[in-house]
């Protein structure tokens, strides 16, 4: 543990740039270790390690930060989505429209909640779900639509809600990546029945393991989610399902958050806005260095941000013609990258029974062929960003190392 807490800024060793990992938060932990240690000691002294005081404190802190009426701490962003879908009223066999270009959990959560995912394409300029594609996907079995906020900006919530009102659909937001993102002053996740946050370590607000939260302004959704995360219990007994005329017993599961994760998140939440600004500085540096390079088809700073919205960079994603060749070149140079996402959801084998074919959702398919995520985190140095950009430029212009 000692070496981790005393390591210098990621990407630098003794003034020289060495390997650049895709993600590293060792400097953050070195800086805020006194606060983390103090929070963790309180948990250990309290003796309640799951669903305890630290979790309750984090929930209140998240409510203050996001403006949500309710924040419900759970064990992962994925379980937060499952609980949100169930608490918002999804019934077995009903359809939920989700984008084809997103992490698998957006769709698998629908399955685990008893629903059927129906896939829509993404917008032409950006990675959010396309409202026109949503409208075309609606059937008489559609109950909900799930916009996903990806990478550094919100999906077109205004367009999604327009379609939802027309067809009587409930909107649930996969805002797992969207902590700090707002539209018209409202935090991501609060435009419909609710949203979620993921605290996976690499997220903008990351724990040291899996953790998540459900955000909602709906009292009944919050009450139901709280019971579902704890085996359907209200206090120490199974509880009646709120909001249903003929109450039934809730069959929940074990989705509670660990208090040690909450203790870490409480320390990191205090500097979240500082980390967000740091990420923005680094992302702008990438934009400036990579804009105009041959073979780079998109840089995040050139994508539109709708009026009244802000940009919070979780992932710095570029689109390049030779994505796989560039990723291999960077890996050979000791630079980490990630492919978001290697295959669109409608073409995943687990959803083959739904009958989609290649070419059905062309913009999602094109993004999967060209999108590459570069290292971006608060501990990254400007020198490391420059090294990544230099390596990209050499590869794309045919230069030698």
Automatic annotation (TrEMBL):
Protein name from the UniProt record: dTDP-4-amino-4,6-dideoxygalactose transaminase
N6-(pyridoxal phosphate)lysine found at: 203
InterPro entries membership: DegT/StrS_aminotransferase, PyrdxlP-dep_Trfase, PyrdxlP-dep_Trfase_major, PyrdxlP-dep_Trfase_small
GO biological processes: polysaccharide biosynthetic process
Active site per the UniProt annotation: 203 (proton acceptor)
Keyword vocabulary terms for this entry: Pyridoxal phosphate
Domain of life: Bacteria
Molecular function terms, GO-annotated: pyridoxal phosphate binding; transaminase activity
Pfam (any one): DegT_DnrJ_EryC1
Annotated family: Belongs to the DegT/DnrJ/EryC1 family.
